[in-house]
């Protein structure tokens, strides 16, 4: 059971890191407009905050 939880945690981390890496790629190599990058960052900050609150609620219980 511990192995399954570790595997799920690793998969979740990879899924959560991919938008950050993609936004960095767009900024660094594709030179996307700053407004587009800020829009992406705002969306992901809200999603990460919601996920963090849900995770915190699960850990506290």
Question: How does this structure look, described?
Answer:
- The structure is a single chain.
- This protein has 61 residues and is mainly alpha-helical.
- 92% of the residues lie in helices and 0% in strands.
- The protein is built from 2 helices and no strands.
- Helix 1 runs antiparallel to helix 2.
- It is elongated and about 45 Å long.
- It starts with a helix and ends with a helix.
- The model has no long low-confidence stretch (mean pLDDT 88).
SSE blueprint:
Elements: H1 2-30, H2 34-60
Helix pairs in contact: 1-2
Summarize this entry quickly.
With 61 residues, the protein is mainly α. The protein contains two helices and no strands.
Considering the chains and any ligands shown, give keywords for the structure:
61 residues, mainly alpha, 2 helices
Order of helices and strands: HH
Number of strands: 0
For the residues shown, what is the average pLDDT? 88
Q: Any low-confidence stretches, pLDDT <50, length ≥5?
A: none
Instruction: Estimate percent helicity.
Output: over 70%
User: Can you tell me the overall shape?
Assistant: elongated
Question: Class by helix and strand content?
Answer: mainly alpha
Radius of gyration equals 15 Å
Residues in β-strands, percent: under 5%
Distance between the termini: 19 Å
Largest sheet: none
Query: How many individual helices?
Result: 2
């Amino acid at each position: 059971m511990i192995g399954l939880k570790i595997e799920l945690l690793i998969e979740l981390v990879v899924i959560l890191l991919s938008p950050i890496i993609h936004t960095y790629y767009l900024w660094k190599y594709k030179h996307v407009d700053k407004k587009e990058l800020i829009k992406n960052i705002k969306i992901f900050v809200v999603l990460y905050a919601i996920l963090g609150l849900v995770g915190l609620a699960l850990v506290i219980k």
